[in-house]
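Q: Could you fold this chain for me?
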Amino acid sequence: MIYVTKSYLPDLDEYTAYLKGIWERVHLTNDGPLLRQLEDQMKEFLGVRHLKYCSNGTVVLQMALKALDITKEVITTPFSYVATTNALLWEGCTPIFADIRPDDFCIDPDAIEPLITENTQAIMATHVYGNACRIEQIQAIADKYGLKVIYDAAHTFGASYNGQSILSYGDLSTCSFHATKVFHTVEGGCIVTDNDEMAEKLHFYRSFGHRNDDYRSVGINAKNSELHAAMGLCVLPKVPELIASRKEVFGYYDSRLDFSKITRPTLTPGVDYNYAYYPIVFDTEETLLRVMDALQAQDVLPRRYFYPSLNTLPFVKTHQPCPISENVSLRVLCLPMYPGLSEVDADRIASVVNEAVALVNID
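A: Sure. Below is the predicted structure, expressed as structure tokens.
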């Protein structure tokens, strides 16, 4: 069975060596030495000033909203994983959906400004598939109207824009380290800022609002454990190698798929990509479903990523039509993409896709 992704696991002896240290110290969580070591190494790897390692990629979105005092309307993307919208709703904010660009599927800056009202406080955008949004345009709009910018950068670890980590942009930027990501710690996430005062606030938010007996603010339990940090310390040095392997798989698909019948999103100029996903777009949902059936018959499980368009979720009370997102979400499919996927398997997957698409066109 070939799944849409496969988690990278480091050498077991390397991981066990970290576990032995944990057993010796009996320090399992609460800002332990491995967590601090991982934070320092990630900051160096990414070239960012402050990074708080947390329990997952959703709680850091919630922390970002709380830290910036966002309680009203937030203009956001309908084309993302549901966590982006859920974080807004969970924190009592009102998501206002701006449609996406038809070429890269990131939020369209031209669709943002008409949605701004006196209740708008922030823009929360997703760097879709690890590809950067139109950062300068979004920031210009935010500056014009006094809005905060939060980036859901869950897919971007190891990717850069104009020579800087994509995580370095916005008032706050968040990332996910779920087991399926380019860099993972089994479960985990981070929040990034270049502001010293904000970093201190986030530290307290992560740990119930206190350090020892010094209580400063409201807080939640967003800490992560030494066992998760140990996994991160094993995986982090391998990230360049993992991205190179993903790039190789990306090239296999590029050379074998018939792009007269399908398309894929374009990269934003200035992006050095991390090859997090391989999305392809069909002409109709019917074609997508036929391709999915053909792949599943060969024990290949792709994923409709992202589907549905978030502005159509049944529990979202506000509704803004987003015709591009609604249309694309019906037609986009992510093919298996992970280090070590063989050229033979990539060729087989591409052949199944090409044949299924050709049969639909014949019908």
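A (continued): The radius of gyration is 21 Å.
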